[in-house]
Design a protein that fits this description.
- Keywords: Membrane, Transmembrane, Transmembrane helix.
- This is Integral membrane protein.
- It comes from Streptomyces cacaoi.
- An eight-stranded mixed sheet has the order 2-3-4-1-5-6-7-8, with helices on both faces.
- The chain is globular, with a radius of gyration of 30 Å.
- The chain is mainly alpha-helical.
- Among the domains are: 36 residues, no CATH class; 201 residues, no CATH class.
- It has 24 helices and eight strands.
């Protein structure tokens, strides 16, 4: 069998199998395995498939795409980024204090991010709307939908009752996050893996690659615990905001002593519940040696219920009659957001130190940012949360703020105003970096142009054609510069966040006033960037949702953003339970079950799993889940694969050289095809010379020529396209390597002297390639062979199978 797995862009079974008549073999409308209709009963007629394999296609595109409503998942982007940091730890030992500390720090960062975003909703609903605007006659006059809260004699005119009503919004937001997490778990991640558990104390739990552990793709217990803890944290944030406002009034002279005592009792209970939340988050991490399917029912049920009960009590306490209470100034908020900003900065710095320590234990030269990638990515996640919080609060504050003197509002807390002011500065920095990388691409392409034709001996140089090919190579190579782009933005964000905290401490804000004591030019600059940040966050939010909706509905848009989104949602929810669902917890068990059931029925069956782009990552992860005997019946063919170039650099603990070499050793055969023009795929072992054989002496074959022909030839009279990341099956090397893997599997199962599976109907054709010299990752086009070989002819398409998809 040949099992095809498409990449990020997704495709249809008809295109993958090259036949308009297909049937579903197993699976559902979300993810399924398909065959040609003529091959549906292939097992009943084995004599028909002695010359070539049965072809199946696994379609998983509906796991990450669908209707446009899924664009709302993009709001969960900060949670996804922080969750991604958990998996980026350096390639130290799989266990140990440093590894546990790394997981603990990321989980605490994730918890702080939940508190930050719920606190931002509380700021908008409780402070800006219910307290400031509803308590100002001019504001309610301009915003008539708040008129029922205004006045002096209405039931809702008391500030505490307005706050209790406004608390419905952050409570509903918390419930929505809980519901999405629970629903997506049942829909995507509840598939049981192959049951091959090992004892926790078994040394194999430490020695095996992590992705081969049977519980890696099933963490029900941890996700349930974290979901309960984060839900409780959201409720407690609302309860704390309500109680802080009421106790500030009750402890004044003339306030009710009974309400004051009840308020302080509520605060004590809230703090105790918060300590329990932190304990639950810190208590345990992932368990991967066996599927972790038990539930801590006490924590899962009692913690959110208790927090919700405290929120209801806080709302009742706030709504109690206080006739003399009037809304003046703003609610407490600077301290909360300032403490969260300082806490997140400290956790990021600690995470960077842990990453450096792990990297020193086992240094891998191609590890992104020398082990500090988790800290940089976590900083970006926190920055997204802070910018979103500050920008939305500033935008709502500007929208509610009236033009008259009696409708002016104090606005959001000072630190949120500073954070919204960071947006234009970060935008200028990003534009500068993009301009620099664009210049790098232009300069590199210009240097490669004169050498492109040397890769096609016997052709007449064409400056225009050479520029296009050189530009494709230069643009593809810029992917390797991504770590420094991330590091620059992360450091700038950390510095600007510190400036925001210091600026808040130095700024004295009075009710109804802006900043005191600042020079005129500083005050003018601050007003300008605040206004720009306010409008940019509103515009950015609309563009964000529009782009996200288009990415889910439009194939070309999805190719642009799909790889980043699918890398983030490939990993299980180990740090943040409100992150988007992990599609691999459905796709990997699907593929592992399919391969195991196929090979277990008859011991002489052979299978080549063929993965393109992200499909190659799913294929490798599924092969890891098989036992050693089954792996000997399986060969792996990858093309346009980011296994090393992306996953190996950013996730070295899981896809490092040691893990990839172990996978190669367990398989009977593995071949990887790549091109210089591919911005995503690359060699599995960069820097190693490609030894063109199909034995166990090498995995990589490439770089393949792209385009297949430089100019017009007798065989190809029309210009050949630059394929880049698409259509690897159009290259003759694909059929050659696939058939070679089937031959190797046949020889291994049959023994010496036994006839193996014949090759395909088409004769093998050598494809001119650029050999990879020792020590070079992405070789220069001038390093093409000069043996006089002409361009290869495009192979005739087989009727039985087409490309798994044009985009990765």
């Amino acid at each position: 069998m040949e099992l095809l797995v498409h990449g990020v862009g997704g495709t249809t079974p008809e295109k993958m199998l090259g036949d308009p008549r297909t049937c579903r073999v197993t699976g559902d409308s979300t993810a399924a395995v398909y065959r040609r209709t003529d091959d549906e009963k292939a097992e009943e007629h084995p004599e028909r498939y002695r010359d070539e394999p049965v072809v199946e296609a696994y379609c998983w595109s509906n796991l990450t795409s669908g209707n446009g409503s899924r664009a709302l998942w993009l709001i969960l982007l900060p949670f996804m980024v922080v969750n991604l940091a958990h998996w980026m730890r350096a390639a130290g030992p799989h266990r140990g204090r440093a590894v546990r500390l790394h997981g603990l720090l990321v989980r605490l960062l994730a918890l702080s991010l939940t508190v930050l975003l719920i606190a931002a909703v509380c700021e908008v609903a409780l402070d800006l709307i219910a307290w400031q605007c509803a308590g100002t006659s001019g504001c309610t006059a301009e915003h008539t939908w708040l008129a029922f809260m205004g006045g002096q004699d209405g039931w809702w005119s008391l500030p505490g009752r307005r706050l209790a009503l406004a608390a419905v919004l952050p409570v509903a937001g918390t419930l929505l996050l809980w519901w999405l997490s629970h629903r997506t778990w049942n829909a995507y991640e509840s598939q049981p893996p192959l049951q091959r558990g090992i004892a926790e104390e078994d040394p194999a739990a430490d020695g095996r690659p992590p992705l081969s552990l049977p519980g890696f793709w099933y963490g029900k217990r941890l996700v349930a615990r974290l979901r309960a803890a984060h839900t409780a944290a959201g409720f407690l944030t609302v309860a704390a905001a309500l109680t802080a406002a009421t106790t500030r009034y009750d402890r004044r002279p003339g306030g009710s002593a009974l309400l004051d005592v009840l308020g302080w009792a509520l605060l004590v209970a809230i703090v105790a519940a918060a300590v329990c939340v932190v304990y639950v988050v810190c208590r345990r991490g992932r368990k991967e040696s066996t599927p972790d399917d038990r539930l801590d029912r006490l924590a899962v049920r009692l913690l959110p219920g208790t927090a919700l009960a405290l929120t209801v009590l806080a709302a009742v306490h706030s709504a109690w009659s206080r006739p003399g209470w009037r809304a003046v100034g703003s609610l407490p908020g600077d301290e909360t957001f300032g403490v969260l900003a300082v806490l997140q900065g400290a956790l990021v710095v600690a995470l960077a130190l842990v990453g450096l320590r792990l990297h020193r234990v086992r240094e891998l030269p191609r590890t992104a940012l020398a082990g500090t990638a988790p800290a940089a990515v976590a900083m970006l996640g926190c920055a997204l949360g802070a910018v979103l919080s500050g920008g939305v609060a500033q935008r709502v504050g500007d929208w509610l703020n009236g033009s008259g003197p009696d409708s002016r509002l104090p606005g959001p807390p000072t630190i949120l105003t500073w954070q919204s002011s960071i947006i234009p500065v970060l935008l200028v920095l990003v534009l500068a970096l993009v301009s620099w990388f664009a210049f790098r691409v232009w300069r590199t392409a210009r240097g490669l142009t004169d050498d492109v034709a040397a890769g096609y001996p016997g052709t007449v140089p064409d400056a225009s054609r050479s520029r296009r090919i050189a530009g494709a190579v230069a643009r593809a190579g810029i992917t390797d510069e991504a770590p420094w782009l991330v590091a620059t933005i992360a450091v700038a964000t950390l510095v600007l966040g510190g400036v925001a905290v210091v600026g808040t401490l130095l700024t004295h804000r009075a009710p109804g006033a802006a900043a005191d004591g600042a020079p005129a030019f500083v005050d003018g600059f601050a007003d300008t960037v605040q206004a720009m940040g306010s409008w940019l966050i509103g515009l950015g939010f609309l563009l964000f949702l529009t782009w996200g909706r288009r990415a889910y509905r439009d194939q070309s848009a999805r190719r642009t953003v799909g790889i980043l989104w699918d890398v983030g949602t490939f990993w299980p929810r180990a740090a943040h339970p409100f992150a988007p669902p992990c599609y691999a917890e459905r796709a990997v068990p699907d593929l592992a079950w399919r391969m195991a059931t196929w090979t277990d029925e008859q011991p002489d069956r052979r299978l080549v799993i063929s993965g393109h782009s992200q499909g190659s990552v799913l294929a490798a992860a599924a092969v890891w889940q098989l036992d050693r005997d089954t792996r000997r019946q399986v060969a792996l063919l990858t093309y346009g694969s980011p296994l090393e170039r992306l996953y190996g650099r950013w996730f070295p603990a899981y896809f490092g050289p040691r893990q990839l070499s172990a996978l190669d050793g367990d398989l009977e055969g593995w071949r990887n095809l790549w091109r210089l023009t591919d911005p995503i795929g690359g060699p599995v072992h960069p820097g190693a010379a490609d030894r063109r054989g199909t034995g166990r002496d090498g995995v990589d074959r490439g770089p393949l020529l792209d385009p297949l022909a430089y100019g017009r030839t007798l065989e190809l009279p029309l210009p050949e396209p630059i394929l880049a990341h698409s259509d690897y099956q159009a290259d003759p090397a694909f059929d050659e390597e696939r058939d070679g893997l089937l031959d190797r599997l046949g020889a291994a199962r049959s023994g010496p002297g036994t006839r193996s599976l014949p090759r395909s109907r088409h004769p093998a054709r050598d494809t001119p390639e650029r050999p990879v010299p020792d020590g070079a990752d992405r070789p220069h086009p001038a390093e093409a062979p000069s043996d006089g070989a002409g361009p290869a002819r495009r192979p005739v398409r087989r009727g039985r199978a087409g490309p798994p998809g044009r985009a990765g």
